[in-house]
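Quick illustration, no need to memorize.
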Amino acid sequence: MKINKLLLCLLSLLVFVSCANDDDYETVQVASAITMSVAELRNSTSVLPPQNISESGKVYVKDHLILINDKKEGIHLIDNTNPANPQKTAFLKVLGSNDMEIKGDYLYVDSYMDLVVFDISNLTEIKEVERLEDVFPYYAPYPVDATYINYNTYPQDQKAIVVGWNIKEERRKIEDNPVYYDVSNAAFSESFSSSETGQGGSLARFKIVNNYLYAVDYSNINVFDISNLNTPQKKESVEAGFDIETIFNRGEYLFLGSMNGLYIYDIKTPAVPSFVSEFRHVTSCDPVVVDGDYAFVTLRGGNFCGAINSSLRVIDISDIMNPVEKSSYTLEEPYGLGVKNDKLYVCDGDAGLKVFDKKDVPSVKLLETYDVEKAYDVIPLANNLIMIGDGILYQYSYLENGLELVSEFEL
């Protein structure tokens, strides 16, 4: 009996210690950096056979060529000679890529902190012809599913960069750990017409106007003289604010969408964009397109975008020095948008592609909603409309009273 009591006491003591210890520990998701040397990055571009897409990014169209960015991985090239039956032709591996622009026979692509130029005059033999190094700020990718970052795994010099994260569950003692950093406090940023150029969507960060390429990052307009298409020259960057997300051109003006507002710059002196005016709004993700005297802005709330609600805003820019909001419409999860004649096309995430009548702008009227999975960005071309969804390329023809699906291409 005494032995049983002794065992019971010992068991109780162990349970007590275990509970006390449990109170001192927590289960967290810790991100360890996946790194690559800068030298390896700069030697990694290659042309590969067609690949399946990992994560749909931005879309760009030049004549019968469609380019779709696979976020941070590269660009899928699609022959769209027959829109009813598009064909993948190649995958251009460019690590760290998010944006692209074409002029003539040259394709400009970002690769983390570099600008890379490709000769695409022969699509069966694409060649890298120039790389401007360290022309963009480098932002580490965001470890969205992690609680902490283990900075012991972070590069200690500028000879390597972070290209991804390995996230594992860990049981750790609750204490201030100098090599663990709270992700909720981290400041990361995703890293961002002439007949010779193509057309990108409203989510683009690159825009070619005549002999200049304008590329926005988190806070700057990066300016490149591309008079010699295969040897762009970096000009001085223009500080443009914070949380810059997109760029749109209309005439002699650049319209920058940011998480805090719409910024307008003139490019009368192309090498030196100059501030004209701004329209401030609640913090949210913010692409913009312009048609005539009006700018159309979608504000996406939720997640890191800040605002709770999402909406479409119509802004009168007839007085370019004094933009004024004229109307607002509730949306679900808006991303890119585009205009053609009297129609406004809005990608509303899982709520589909929405078509508005804007004949009576600043009032707009919802005409139709097309059910698609994760409508992301749209380009209304002269004869057809191209939209990128979650791993799917949609193409529509225009009807008098709507759109007709031409093809639905699995990427």
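Residues 56 and 67 are 11 Å apart (CA to CA).
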